[in-house]
Specification:
Elements: H1 5-26, E1 35-40, E2 44-46, E3 52-63, E4 69-72, E5 80-86, E6 91-94, E7 107-110, E8 114-125, E9 132-140, E10 143-152, H2 158-161, H3 180-183, H4 201-204
Parallel strand pairs: 2-10
Antiparallel strand pairs: 1-3, 3-8, 4-7, 5-6, 5-9, 9-10
Length: about 210
Amino acid sequence: MKMPNMIVTTLAAIAIITVLGFLARDDGRIGSGEIGLEVGVPIEHRLTNFDITPLPVVLRLVNNTNETMPLTADAPCKIFRFFVTTKDGGFVQAMRTPEVCDETQTRAAIAEQDVIEEIRQVPLDSKRFSAGDYALRVKFWNYEGEAAFTLSNNSTDYKRLGKAAPIKPSVGKPLGRMRPACARKPCQSSSSVKTRSRPALSEIFKPSAAL
C-alpha cells in the first residue's frame, strides 16, 4: 500500500523539526542577545517525475534577546520568499508572486526568548532540476538564511515502499544576524558573509525584484 505524497512530506517535515529541536539546544548558533533564522531541509530529497517536486522547509526564527521585537514584511505575500541556486551559485529558480494572495499580515512581533516555527513547501519546478547539489536561500520576516540540499533521481524507491526517505536537517548558517538595535529597522546582511559568485541577497529580495 502506497503512502500518499502529502503524508510522506508531512512526516519528513516533522522529522526535521524533531532533530532541529535537539540541535538548537546544543550548538549555540544564535547567541545571547541575537535574533537569527534557522533553515531546515532534507539533506537528500528525491526528484519526482511530476511537474512539481515539493521540498519541505522548516523555518525557525529565534529571538535570544530580552525584548519583544517587531517583525515587518515588504508585502503580505513577501513574508516568505525563496531563491534556489546550484552549489556554485548559478540561478535555478526563484519564487514568483502569486496572482491571488491569501496572506494579509505585514506586521507581527516575536516575544523575548521565543521561537517562531513554520513549515513551508518550496515547489521545485522539476524540469529545471537534475540530480545534484543545490542551495536554498530564504527570507522570512526580513531575516535571511540558507541551507544546502541534494536531489537524487531514484537511489531507493521509498515512495513505492510506502516509507519516508531517511532525513536529517541541513541547517544553513544564519545570514544577517541582528542585535536588538538593528532589529528595529531594516538591516543589511553581514558584510563578513562570503557569497562567492552568488548574487547578493539584498539584490535578490529587494522589493522591486520580480520574484
